[in-house]
Specification:
Elements: E1 11-14, H1 22-28, E2 34-37, H2 40-45, H3 49-57, E3 63-65, H4 74-86, E4 91-96, H5 98-113, H6 117-120, E5 122-123, E6 133-137, E7 149-153, E8 159-163, E9 171-174, H7 184-202, H8 210-232, H9 237-256, H10 261-273, H11 277-307, H12 317-334, H13 351-358, H14 362-365, H15 374-384
Helix pairs in contact: 4-5, 7-8, 7-9, 7-11, 8-9, 10-11, 10-13, 11-12, 11-15, 13-15
The structure holds nicotinamide-adenine-dinucleotide and fe (ii) ion.
């Protein structure tokens, strides 16, 4: 067996209503005055009130930063950091989707280590320690609560990552009561994103290992079983908790066996047209599966056996691989997501530029089971059009 290293968050609490334990968790981590990092949509809904009242029960005062914008730019991180320093907080609680969690991770690190963003961009560049950190996802998608990554928008169309082991939180708290109000479209997009994390981790050319395989399979099993219910019947707590856990397992998988060409072709769509991350993955997914089938067919067939009921599963590898692709095409349509680049108003004339952007994502493309050239990327965008 090939050797491997597996890392993840220290503690995962997966329990309905677990937000009410936040006071005792803070006490355990010796947080006396946390900064809550969230976004204006969540604040307007009052979703974070549950967190505030649980802290109040334990007489824990806090500061609140509720101005995280989607795909956060540097300015968001710096504004949250300024508040953290001004309020002299001694811990950070990220509460929201990937945008809030990524911001919270960086603030926890920078408030303690005093390193600048420019010093920590890249892989394991951060040297200092962070403040105690709790991450509470309110979308079931990015898996940011169990990854060592924070993604920041650094230019008009570019994103830059900080990858540092300090970014794993002390506690990831998965409570489906916080996700019941997530609208169907966001549930569907973030859910498909998480399923892509599991698929790409399972076929990753680098650092794929026994743990990441187990996690990816179980993540897909859970999410395939529950994504339609969670999307179409949002109040179903069982489906919601299963999606949170599935996205978390997929996050653990891709934190160790990194994602590949679906994400490489999705990023330029997000960067240029500000389409949601999950939607961009969904638009590329079936076409990339078809492209990769010649090199990853056997692995896709294994995943088909995880997702599809035994009574409809065909016997051959090629047949199962085709069944997996068809499954995702049908799922995306059932969830009501747009199925083509034309449907989300991507100008056809931009496809060559997008292919040029995608080929720059070598960090991701090297993990893909089949090599992707710029011509291949263009052909895949055309197929998705
Ligand atoms: N760190 C990682 O490992 C990692 C991995 C993938 C993506 N990302 C990043 O995560 C970000 C995307 O995160 P996301 O897809 O979770 O979306 P998001 O955090 O940008 O949130 C999207 C929208 O959902 C709303 N929302 C969130 N929770 C809600 C709830 N429970 N009820 C109602 N509305 C709710 C928010 O108000 C917001 O308007 C991007 O910046 C992406 O680059 C990070
Ligand atoms: Fe993703």
């Amino acid at each position: 067996m090939q050797g491997f290293i597996f890392n993840s968050s220290k503690s995962i609490i997966c329990e309905l209503g677990a937000i009410r334990r936040i006071g005792e968790i803070c006490e355990r981590l010796r947080i006396a005055r946390p900064l809550i990092v969230t976004d204006p949509g969540i604040a307007a809904m009052g979703l974070h009130e549950r967190l505030l009242s649980a802290l109040a029960t334990h007489q824990i005062p806090c500061a609140v930063f509720s101005s995280v914008v989607p795909d956060p730019p540097e300015a968001t991180v710096l504004a949250a950091l300024e508040l953290a320093l001004r309020e002299r907080v001694d811990g950070v609680i990220g509460f929201g989707g990937g945008s809030s969690l990524d911001t919270a991770k960086l603030v926890a690190l920078m408030a303690r280590s005093s390193e600048s963003l420019q010093q920590i961009y890249g892989v394991e560049q951060a040297k200092g320690e962070r403040l105690p950190l709790i991450l509470v996802p309110t979308t079931a998608g990015t898996g940011s609560e169990v990854t060592a990554v924070a993604i920041i928008t650094t230019g008009e169309t570019t994103k830059t990552g900080v990858v540092a082991s300090q970014l794993y939180p002390d506690v990831a708290l998965l409570d489906a009561e916080l996700t019941v109000a997530l609208p169907p479209s966001i549930t569907a997009m973030t859910g498909v994103d998480a399923m892509v994390h599991a698929i790409e981790a399972y076929t990753s050319l680098h650092r794929k290992n026994l743990y990441s395989n187990m996690l990816a399979r179980e993540a897909l099993r859970l999410m395939a079983k529950h994504i339609e219910t969670a999307t179409l019947d949002g109040g179903n707590l069982e489906a919601r908790q299963a999606m949170l856990l599935g996205a978390c397992l997929a996050g653990q998988a891709f934190a160790n066996a990194p994602v590949a060409a679906v994400h490489a072709l999705a990023y330029p769509l997000g960067g240029r047209y500000h389409l949601p991350h999950g939607l961009t993955n969904s638009l590329v997914l079936p076409h990339m599966l078809r492209f990769n089938a010649s090199h990853a067919g056997a692995l896709y067939a294994e995943l088909a056996a995880v997702i599809l009921p035994a009574e409809i599963l065909l016997s051959g590898t090629a047949e199962r691989c085709t069944q997996l692709i068809t499954y995702f095409e049908q799922l995306i349509a059932t969830l009501g997501l747009p199925c083509t680049l034309a449907a989300v108003n991507v100008p056809q004339a931009d496809l060559p530029t997008l292919a040029g952007d995608a080929i720059l994502q070598q960090r991701l493309l090297i993990n893909n089971p089949r090599p992707v050239t710029q011509d291949d990327a263009l052909a895949i965008y055309r197929a998705a059009y």
